[in-house]
Design a protein that fits this description.
six-stranded parallel β-sheet; alpha/beta; Rossmann fold; three-stranded mixed β-sheet
Length: 177
């Protein structure tokens, strides 16, 4: 089975592009923690898309989603990210490494990640999971500068992914083309 998973799905814009681009995908899944944009996501994607009102993360539980005053595209689980305020809403977070355990070793995942700085914790944990081999292609928007991470530390995480044969695409401005 081929699966497209969108972490930080916002209003469904990327999922809808992926549906058009990847006609051979069997399952589309979207994670979006913000309650307002989750409603837009649900309204904008086909009913066949599985949508989770939760943040993809490296842990399970309830956490704070810090609000970006200029819009939902900058909300983050990281309270020190330069685009967020001290205002927050509590949201569910799901350990993505555990979540993908539901898939089999024969499945292929195309993964889009735009989770406003939390991608580093998620990837560090994911590389220790045997199911990292399911990720065949990764589109990622990187936020190391916005969370105060050094480029050297960013590059370490990228190298970890590359050493696991992850095909990485994306940059700092547009993670999915």
């Amino acid at each position: 089975m081929k699966i497209f998973i969108d972490l930080g799905a916002y209003n469904g814009d990327t999922i809808n592009k992926a549906i058009k681009q990847y006609g051979d995908v069997d399952l589309f899944v979207a994670f979006e923690p913000d309650p307002v944009t989750f409603k837009a996501l649900r309204d904008n994607v086909p009913e066949s898309v599985i949508c989770y009102r939760a943040a993809a993360s490296d842990t399970n539980g309830i956490t704070k989603l810090y609000i970006c005053p200029t819009g939902a595209m900058g909300h983050s689980l990281i309270g020190t990210k330069i685009t967020v305020s001290d205002k927050f809403v509590e949201v569910e977070e799901i350990d993505f490494s555990e979540y993908i355990n539901k898939f089999s070793q024969n499945d292929e995942i195309i993964l889009k990640v735009d989770i406003e700085g939390k991608e580093y914790d998620l990837f560090r944990k994911l590389v220790s999971s045997p199911n990292i081999k399911l990720i065949k292609k990764l589109f990622c928007e990187w936020h190391y500068k916005k969370i105060g991470m050094s480029e050297e530390e960013h590059n370490k995480v990228v190298r970890l992914l590359l050493s696991n044969q992850i095909n990485i695409n994306g940059n700092n401005s547009d993670e999915f083309r």
